[in-house]
Amino acid sequence: MLGKKIEDAFNEQINWELYSGYLYLSMSAYFQSINLTGFANWMYCQALEEGTHAMKFFDFINERSGRVELLATKAPGKEWESPLAAFEEAYEHECLVSGRINDLVNLSIEEKDHASNNFLQWFVSEQVEEEASVDEVVQKLKLVGNDGGGLFMIDQELAQRTFTPPAAEE
Ligand SMILES: [Fe+2]
Ligand SMILES: [Fe+2]
């Protein structure tokens, strides 16, 4: 049985993960609008991945006989000044999510909920990957600056990303 505090915090986290997906989907549409289809693909895959994060919390709450409560999701931004500005916002957002995951781990320790703590460890590792993969693109964008050729090369690289649903991974 899931404690009330954990249940509320995990429901809030479902909302955060869904919002992350919403934000990246909006960034994908922005990249489509400026014809950077590789960047758009990368953000599209990222949005799908965020959906799987939300579902992990959804499934865990149900498995522990908690009650899922879906909260309202705010609208994400629509336009960004540049590809770099979008990726910098994505990076800041992932750092916020990492902070939230840490807070959830702290709560699970306070509540002596080892099952939740164990469940959250997957997200602790995942956030290391998330921050690193977004930051990698930020650094590349800084490197090429306003060079169109460099941007085109990064776009081609990001076009290679594919999304693998978690069930197929295991
Ligand atoms: Fe996430
Ligand atoms: Fe990831």
Task: Give a concise summary.
Helix 1 runs antiparallel to helix 2.
Structural description of this entry:
- The protein is mostly helical.
- It has six helices and no strands.
- It starts with a helix and ends with a helix.
- The model has no long low-confidence stretch (mean pLDDT 96).
Which descriptors apply to this entry?
170 residues, mainly alpha, Ferritin, 6 helices, 77% helix, binds fe (ii) ion
> What is the helix tally?
6
Low-confidence stretches: none
How much strand?
A: under 5%
CATH topology: Ferritin
Number of domains: 1
- For the residues shown, what is the average pLDDT? 96
Shape: elongated
Could you name the CATH homologous superfamily?
A: Ferritin, core subunit, four-helix bundle
CATH class: Mainly Alpha
User: Number of DSSP strands?
Assistant: 0
Largest sheet: none
- Radius of gyration from the CA trace? 17 Å
| Heteromolecules bound | fe (ii) ion
Element-level helix/strand string: HHHHHH
State the separation between the terminal residues, measured CA to CA: 26 Å
CATH-derived architecture: Up-down Bundle
Q: What share of residues is helical?
A: over 70%
- Judged by helices, strands and strand pairing, the structural class is mainly alpha
